[in-house]
C-alpha cells in the first residue's frame, strides 16, 4: 500500500513548541474492543499514561488531554465505550475495567466508533490526533472484499460510512494514525487514505509482526513525529533552559 511509516527511535528532541500561548494537544485512542483485541487493549492500559508523561517532558509548554472510544459490534452488550478528554491518570482509571468481549463476525462497528470520536470535545485544540487500533475492517464488502465474515455485507445497517469522518478530519487538519495488526484491514485503510485529500497527516504504523509489545515505542515515535512537524510549521523550536529527557531515554 505504500503507507507504512518508519520511525527513528534514537532522536533526542527536547524543546518548547513555538507558541506565545500554551499549546493544547488532544489525543483520542479509538480501539476495537472485541475478544481478539485483548492484548492490544492491555497495551493501551499499560502505556497511555507513560506516553503522555514522556510527551510532557519533551514539550514543556504543551497541555495534553486524552480520550478513549471503544467499539464492538451490533448485538454487543456494550457496543460503544466513550470517555471524553481528560488527564491520562484519570483516563487510565476509566479504561482499566473494560474487558474484551463480543465479535460474532469478523467485521466490526468501525463507522460508529469513528463517529463517536468525531463528537468528542475537540474544541480549538492546536493539535488533534486520532490513534485507531483495530484488527478487523468496517462492515460492507467495499471494505472487506468479502474476505471476512460480515453480517452486513451491504455496509453499516444504519447507513453510516466511516469515510465520512476520515474526510472531515482531513479537512479539519487532524492527524490520523492507523495501527495495523493484520492484513484484513488493508482494503479499509486504502479507502480511508483515498479520501484523505486535505490537511493534517495520515499514517499507518505496521505492528503486524511486532505485536502489542511494539505499541509503546511506535506510538511514542509517531506522536513525537506529529509534534515535531507541528513545531516546524509554526517556526523554529526554542530550546528549553532546562531540557529534560523522557524516562525512556535516560536508561
Brief characterization of the structure:
With 251 residues, the protein is of the alpha/beta class. It is built from seven helices and eight strands; from the N terminus they run ββαββααβααβαβαβ. The chain has helices spanning 38-58, 88-95, 110-118, 141-144, 163-171, 186-194, 215-234; strands at 15-16, 23-32, 62-71, 80-86, 127-134, 175-180, 201-206, 238-239.
Question: Would you give an account of this structure?
Answer:
By secondary structure, the chain is α/β, with parallel strands linked by helices. The chain has one domain (21-235): von Willebrand factor, type A domain (Rossmann fold), CATH 3.40.50.410. It is 32% helix and 20% strand. The protein has seven helices and eight strands. Strand 3 (62-71) and strand 4 (80-86) form a beta hairpin. The termini are far apart. Mean pLDDT is 87; it is low at 1-14 and 237-251.
> Any idea what the CATH superfamily is called?
von Willebrand factor, type A domain
**Secondary structure: number of strands:** 8
Task: Estimate the global geometry from the Cα principal axes.
Answer: globular
Task: List segments where confidence is low: pLDDT < 50 over at least 5 consecutive residues.
Answer: 1-14, 237-251
Helix count equals 7
Percentage of residues in DSSP E strands = 15-25%
CATH architecture: 3-Layer(aba) Sandwich
CATH names the topology as Rossmann fold
* Spatial separation of the terminal alpha carbons: 36 Å
SSE string, helices as H and strands as E: EEHEEHHEHHEHEHE
The overall pLDDT, averaged over residues, is: 87
Number of domains: 1
Spatial strand order of the main sheet: 4-3-2-5-6-7
What is the CA-based Rg, rounded? Answer: 18 Å
Q: What is the C-level CATH assignment?
A: Alpha Beta
User: Largest sheet, if any?
Assistant: 6 strands, mixed
